[in-house]
Structure formats: C-alpha cells, structure tokens
Write a structure and sequence with these properties.
The longest helix is centred in the N-terminal third of the chain and has 11 residues. The relative contact order is 0.16. The strands form 2 sheets. Strands 1-4-5 form a 3-stranded parallel β-sheet, with no helix packed on it. The chain has a two-stranded parallel ribbon with strand order 2-3. Helix 2 runs parallel beside helix 3. The chain contains 3 helices and 5 strands; from the N terminus they run αββββαβα.
C-alpha cells in the first residue's frame, strides 16, 4: 500500500493520554494500516484489514470515534458531526484561526481544546 503526504499519525503517547482524558476510543476513522491507533479503523480506500471504507459513510453518532483527518477534510468532519448529532468524537485538528470551519469547531467543542507540540 502506498503512503501519501496525508498519512499522519499522532504520537502514541499523546494518543494514550487522550484515552486517559476522555475514555477509551473505539474506531480510528481516518487511518491506514500504517497509521491506525486502534484495532478498528476506517480507510479512505479499500483495505482488507480496515473495518470499512470511507468514514463519511458511517454513522458517527453510534461510536466513540477518533478522527485525525487530512486537514482539508476538517470542515466536512464538522458537518458530519452536526448532521448526525454526534455526541462523542475526539477530533485532532491544527490550530488555524482563519479557516471557515474554525468557529464551528469551537462551537461544537464540549471540552477545552488540548494543545500538543
């Protein structure tokens, strides 16, 4: 499987800290077999090891999801959260105040954002 520039992975120590803060996460919504933090993961393309293809085709309201999407998809993620009335999602994003999605991110947040180096 080819890797591309959007294949990011949060440091596993930081990920473990997120699980301590907010409880165990169930599904890694934007992962590959090289970047998944959880055994259950969703990949954008067909992958025989992934639980599903295309995170946006899933019902996020029925899971404790973890999302570290390509930054170009953050706005779409926030739309999905709002449309599905998602109650629990750990979303990792950059702190960029200029994108149109940033005020919605702050509005939908239910806890103080955590900053990581």
């Amino acid at each position: 499987m080819d890797r591309d520039s959007s294949d990011w992975k949060l440091d596993p120590i930081v990920f473990a800290h997120l699980n301590e803060l907010w409880g165990l996460l169930e599904v890694d919504l934007f992962a590959t077999r090289h970047t998944n933090q959880l055994l259950r993961y969703v990949f954008l393309r067909p992958d025989p090891v992934a639980e599903a293809t295309d995170a946006f085709s899933r019902d996020w309201s029925q899971m404790r999801g973890y999302a570290f999407p390509p930054f170009s998809l953050v706005g779409h993620c926030l739309s999905q959260v709002r449309e599905q009335d998602t109650q629990y999602l750990c979303l990792v994003t950059p702190v960029w105040e200029t994108p149109v999605w940033y005020p919605l991110l702050l509005h939908l947040s239910v806890d103080f954002p955590r900053l990581f180096p």
